[in-house]
Amino acid sequence: MSGALVPLVRAQSAPTATTATATAEITGSVQAENGTALTGVNIVALHLPTGIRRVVITDNTGAFGLKMLLPGGPYALQISQPGFRPQVINNVFLSVDKPSTLKLTLVADVVAVGTRRVDRTALESVAPVDVIDMRELALLAPRVDNTQLLNYVVPSFNSVRETSADGADHVDAATLRGLGSDQLLVLVNGKRRHTSALINLLGSRPYGSATTDLNTISSNALDRVEILRDGAAAQYGSDAIAGVMNFSLKNDNHGGNILVNNGIHQSGFGYNTTVSLNKGLKLGEKGFLNVTGEVDYRGYTTSPTYQRDLTSWPIYSPIRAQEDSFLLANHKTEKDYRQRNGDAIMLNYRAVYNAGIALSEKAKLYSFGTYNFRRGQAVAPWVLPSANPADLGTRPGYDLGYQPNINTRIHDGAAVLGLDLKLGRWDLDLSQSIGTNRMRYDLSNTLNPSMGANSPTSFNAGGLQFTQAVTNATVSRLFDNVLAGTNVAFGGEFRNDFYEIVAGDENSWQDYQAGAPGASGGSQGFIGFDPTSAISGSRQNVAGFLDVEADIVKRWTVGGAVRYEDYSDFGSAFIYKATTRVQAAKWLALRAAYNTGFRAPSQHQQLYRQLTLLPTASGTTYSGIYNNQSDIAQVAGIGKLKAENSRNLSAGLVLTPAKNLVLTADIYQIDIDDRISLTNEFGAGISPQFDAALDRAQTTSVQFFANALNTRTRGLDLVGSYSAPLGRGQLRFTAAANFNETTLRSLKVPTLFQGIQNDEIAGNNFIGQRQLSLITTGSPKSKILGSVGYEGVKLGLTARYTRFGEVASYDFNFDGLDEGGYYLVFSPKAVTDLILSYKVTKGLLLAAGAQNLFNVRPDDLLQAAKNGHAPDGFASMADYQAYYLKTNGTPSTTPYDHDILPYHMVQMGTNGAFFYLKASYSFGQ
After folding, report:
1. Is residue 333 assigned to a domain?
2. InterPro entries per the record (predicted)?
């Protein structure tokens, strides 16, 4: 940790004169927070003027002595011990006639996830846990949003921004171990965090699921992030199939900082600026209130390479002469129709508080909360004369084409109130939390063409809201004398989920064909939610759990947890978990776990329905997503959603062959049954009854959520770190990797659709080839991280390397051909970051550098198509093009949108090099 971020201590207020033979000394002791003496603590005294370094370790009483030191100073003391947070003490001055005596206390580096013991460190945990120091990362690394910060330091974690994906442009999804974003449970201070109201559609990754919006929390308000890479549903409930992330808020009762961040991409787009203030305050004698306020702005980005393809998205005509004639006659160029195809514009206001106060020796009251208001602007593809001239209207500025803006207003808030009680030797934790996410769409720079000249240019399109309230009670106790220490925890939970879709203004969804025959209805770019889509619903569930973790002997730990949950809408679940850890040698520990888990279908998946506008080069089509309560779902034989069930097996080892060197390796296999996915889009021709249901629904194609997939995910996690003194500073190496593969074990197809199922050609199956490929190959097959950093007295330098593995998925199949779309393969890409820091004064820290220094971008769609293959059943792209031309009389435009949206957000985003400068001032430390 940076020396500027920890308390400063003076053994004496000023340096004294030295003599040729006079020496000074430092003596003292080191203990844990509970008063236990710490043996083997490494203490380094660095004389800054000369660079002379002296090292000592504490004895079995925790005492240490450093003698024969040069008088004066300043000295920097570095105190470290595995399992405890390192400490740095600056500006220590020594005198000849008076030894400096220090009594030091180290804070245990314990983890809060994967165990209910309060004394487990990351190295001692029975399952792999990554611990990320956010105090340092937020001040030094590129960006300020949590998804981007974590994406470059945790190999099993992935998050990329979407483009032209409606609401997904405004909420960044996050995944762990290649699974879905709704299979990752997020906690804040150990309490369940609500998800976003958004459900990811339009082929975005992760398709058909809701995500927890990690960027609603200020990174400057965080102390650390713990990531449990193991199934933990038996301990924490639904969603924890891939693992658990716990965001721990700062709890300082003094000091604080001001952080200013600025950055921009090499292209000149995407200017970022942030101003953040954190302050710790005292509540009573021992209480604390820590508050953070932040304003964060991000400008839009767009691809620097852009050229319309007349076979794909012409402005006026696929014939070059007619295209040029139109532009010339209207005093336009192709640049006037440039498609924005990168990050959305985003403005965030964030506020966070964390508070705790002792009511008595046996009672502590705590509370914390967050609020985020986000204003976003993304864009849809241009509405052009080449598609449907009737959609242009007659309003000046729109009659030659327009690019609709998809805007959002997102309010996200959460609060928790809790009470910790000592009941004899038992601890009781009672808490009540509530969290809500409200997302409203408003459209601008667009029309409802069916209204003709009367169409407004902005629309309120309705939106979504999700609210979750959780009441929790947990009782725990550590029995010191049972075996070598046994922790018992049990408790219960009551949760209420509420989901709502709100209809937009009539002008945003109505089709007024009488006003402009042949024109499309609804606001172009994003059609509003109509009254038939408006819906609300709630559900409740109760849960009870028992969690036992025992040290059979000091070197052998076993644990077990069982949980029962009952839901008001689909039934109940009983799951369990078993773990073991053996310290086989001082330098080697072995660990393993087996657990069953579940994920309850989200309220979003159970209730969501909407008519979605899908603009294509050949015109506009509509696809309706209907929930499983609808008439058409009943006709289709789509039953009520039930829980996903998982079985997770993992094994690993922890190696500490030398001081300050830690290596871990963990393998895992996760089987998920009844995995929920959006189905393919189904039109007329499947059966007479289904055709009649389509007519009644007034839509051309429909999709449903269904428990359709049984999948298997296998993977390997590797993590290593090493630090060593170098000169007046510290040299640190880290290396980590994740390798994973998801395969389809089996597919569950209702009777009505078994006739269209074709295991050889996957174009129009029950689950579309694109939907399935996003699940099996839509995440990087591997991710490898490496960094080397040096932290000196004033100067720090870190170089980071991140290699994102191959990503593949099928293209959209808007034409509905049995052969489907191109198989797009995005080859591995490597990104290099450079981070430079300088401690100007005691509290002022500057950080500057580059993310993606060499301006690497993912393969564009045309290259990805060349890396992959033509639609199933064709030997080459040329064969497919010849077939398509013969069958349809026009050239194929696939891969779709390759000109206006040349990149998919698949690995590290599409924006290239990013340069930044951060300045932070820490006060009152």
Report:
1. no
2. Beta-barrel_TonB, Beta-barrel_TonB_sf, CarboxyPept-like_regulatory, Plug_dom, Plug_dom_sf, TonB-dep_rcpt-like
